[in-house]
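User: Sequence in, structure out. Go.
Assistant: Echoing your sequence, followed by the structure tokens.
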Amino acid sequence: MGRYNICVYAISKNEEKHVRLWMDSMKEADQIVVLDTGSADQTVPLLRELGADVFEEKITPWRFDTARNRSLALVPDDVDICVCVDLDERFEPGWRDKLEAVWQPDTSRARYRYTWSFNPDGSEGCVFWIDKIHARKGFTWEHPVHEVLVYTGNTPYQIIDADGIQLNHYPDPTKSRAQYLPLLELAVQEKPDDDRNMHYLGREYMYRGEWGKCIATLLRHLQMPKAVWRDERCASMRYLAKAYLEMGDPEQARAWYYKSMGEAPYLREPYMDFAMMLYQQQDWYGVLYLTECALRITERPRTYICEASAWGSLPYDLASLGYYYTGDYPKALEMVNKALEYTPDDPRLLANQELMRQACR
């Protein structure tokens, strides 16, 4: 295991509630560099008090890639490893030793486990792997929002998995995401052939309930020559199904759910989304078939196309209802018991458990 010069770099704005815990989790680095883009609270003095090197600059017009690149430029040239982290994210202790155990002098980038959200009971929600640890040279950030790290070096690109490193995300639900839509529209305008941005734009329209724009944009995504990643294509198909369902066209929704399952049959999400639709229609045999398909998939994917509900209590919850309403009460009780392993204090599941116990007598 080598000893490397490691620098954490970040951007910040009005993050005083996160500063102390964030700095404590980053203290394993040799240096912490933060670009503050206009905080009106105590973020800057707190960071400085706790030992971060803080620089201040307003980015106008605002773009995440510009801000990331400005912050990266503040990292000294003699740094070996750069670690890009937001202030609402925290590493679990021991991350440096785990990183240095696998990093080699020719390593370009590292992947590591990331918990993007937590459930109300504190258990993990959405989990996937990210790769924002990288060598000092040969990288730049691109895209106004949902920015990505792009390799621009001229040596062989080497990415490694840093098993054991865990980064947790604790977002502030009061912060607005209003800027995301105009920045995504700008991203598509700048690079109309970028399939990733087109998918994200369609998803953003879905989040906002702009169903017509959602459908048009996601159809464009699926027609793009570069849109070949099956996981993301599957997600676009699922979002199309949701949009058509919201617009009162369940047959189109059903067609798109079938397509999504065919596109990525190894993912739980298309089965569970379709199962939710059939649950609402009280098609219990359909619910049972789809939840059974989902539960056959036991390996959680490492990509961001991974939703917490599909890997929590929901598959067992829906299956329990399917079995109950088709008269298989012992199997219904078995499934609701498994659902309660994920959310043991859920009052609805507890009530269902008692109902199913009574039915088994």
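User: And one key feature?
Assistant: The chain is about 45% helix and 15% strand.
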